[in-house]
Amino acid sequence: MKKKLSGLFLCIMLLASTGLFAQSTYYEKGNTSFSFTAGITAPFFLHFWTGENNHPDQWYFFSNDMNIYVGGYAAISYMAFTNERWAFGGELGYSFNYDKGDHLYYNVPLMAKVAYYPIQTGKFDLYLTAGLGLAYNHYTSNNLTDVSQGLLSPYANLGIGGMYFFNDNWGLGLETGVDFIPQISFYQDTAQDNGTFATIPVVLKVTYRN
Asked: What is the pLDDT of residue 9?
């Protein structure tokens, strides 16, 4: 009996999900959007890959362990729809955080992005995003990483957002996710600092679509 009820529940959930994702779409191939985002970025984790010398613990989480404070993030992005649900484009951003010694860390990411829109009513969008690219990093202290002269590193992002449109063109929304910033050095004297810094952005997003 329990197996039958479980099977029925799964069927109901599947049908509900199918109905949700099979709803009529608003966008079509050729639609575009231009967005500006601004908000905060909170430290998530810092993972040193080697665990050697001055980084014996390897993992650090949130501000208390990392001694890095909440900072800011801003970006501009452009997306173009290739069909009713998928859009591709790019984003140029700027992110910064301070550590406990008031040293500034900032990065300037340039990413290719893809977005999937499972819910789109014309007035409200719910979407998922993924981005991959490069970032210029600069940090004025070696407490986090030794990039006081600047370092080019990979940059990746996973996100989710919601957007409400006041009319056919302009919308305002909220977006969050996780940004991953690996540091990869092939020099022996700095290889001990290789690791991944991750942040959680929470931003307001203004979008113009056509």
From this structure: 42
